[in-house]
Design brief:
Elements: H1 13-65, E1 88-89, H2 95-99, E2 108-109, E3 111-118, H3 126-132, E4 141-148, E5 158-163, E6 170-172
Antiparallel strand pairs: 1-2, 3-4, 4-5, 5-6
């Protein structure tokens, strides 16, 4: 009697190992891109919300007082003082933010924010002029600067910028 040979089908261990290795390589390439995109999206959402609030409050303050109010004495005087890749609780707002009647759009922030204000003929700060090409207009002005550490590397930080005479937010070192 002759036994019928059974046909076996399936994958060998070697084939499965090759597929697993290919999937691991694809994941290693895709994961950093995903986390970078996620950090940028979180930064953009936060900055858009804070810039909108600060811009509205500055315009209201100017209507009531005839000038804009700086929230810090320099471009490095941000609130919160040190940007972090993760959100940090804001706590008590600075006096200038209270004077502007700022209602923070979020209870935490990844970026530090400062409003620099001036009068006609007064120049803007170094970061605004060097990084964003800002030239103060021949009228009262303000700009908002956000200092962000979106990637956890404090050697290269991101900056966002908007002024009272522009509607578009500019970015430098975006998401790096």
């Amino acid at each position: 009697m002759h036994r019928a040979q059974r046909s076996q089908s399936g994958f060998t261990l070697l084939e499965l190992m090759i597929v697993v290795a290919i999937v691991a390589m694809l994941a290693a390439v895709a994961l950093p891109n995903f986390t970078s995109d996620s950090r940028r999206a979180k930064g953009d959402a936060e900055v858009n919300a804070f810039f909108a609030e600060l811009k509205i409050r500055e315009e209201q303050y100017a209507i009531e007082n005839g000038r804009y109010l700086a929230t810090g004495t320099s471009e490095t005087a941000t609130f919160p003082a040190t940007p972090t890749p993760g959100a940090q609780m804001l706590g008590a707002l600075p006096a200038t933010w209270l004077t502007l009647k700022v209602r923070t759009p979020e209870s935490s922030a990844r970026c530090g924010y400062v409003v620099i204000a001036g009068i006609s003929g007064q120049p803007g700060g170094a970061i605004a002029s060097a990084s964003f090409g800002y030239t103060a207009p021949a009228m009262n002005w303000f700009y908002i600067l956000a200092h962000c550490n979106l990637d956890g590397d404090s050697a290269v930080d991101s900056y966002y910028f908007i002024s009272n005479d522009t509607a578009k937010i500019q970015k430098t070192n975006y998401g790096r």
